[in-house]
Amino acid sequence: MSMLDRAQRVWFRRQADYPVRWWFTDEDFDELRACPPAMNLPRIELVKNGYRLFGLPVSIERFGQPSRLLLRDGTTIPIMQSKEQSA
């Protein structure tokens, strides 16, 4: 499962919880940008102040934390790697 597929799964499960920002590791962000376009999946957008995915700003994690979605209340939802999801 690609990074974009995993991000989409998290997004659709948690969009009612008021997500505010994506945090991706360098490796995951590179994988996300390399995903080929698909008709049913959005591409990461380059905007004036950075990148957006599903309309939310994207930040690069530089402190060793895993990729995640940040909700308005401060909760973070991890974007699990495919090997973790299959376990």
Structure description:
- There is one protein chain.
- This protein is α+β, with helices and mostly antiparallel strands.
- 29% of the residues lie in helices and 29% in strands.
- A six-stranded mixed sheet has the order 2-3-4-1-5-6.
- The model is unreliable at 82-87 (pLDDT under 50).
| Secondary-structure element string | HEHEEEEEH
Count of helical regions? 3
The stretches of 5 or more residues where confidence is low (pLDDT under 50) are 82-87
Label the structural class.
alpha+beta
Strand order of the largest sheet: 2-3-4-1-5-6
Mean pLDDT: 84
**Total DSSP E strands:** 6
What percent of residues adopt helix (DSSP H or I)? 25-40%
Give the end-to-end Cα distance, rounded to a whole number of Å. Answer: 14 Å
Strand percent estimate:
25-35%
Principal-axes shape call:
globular
Report the C-alpha radius of gyration, rounded.
Answer: 12 Å
Q: Biggest β-sheet: count, sense, barrel?
A: 6 strands, mixed
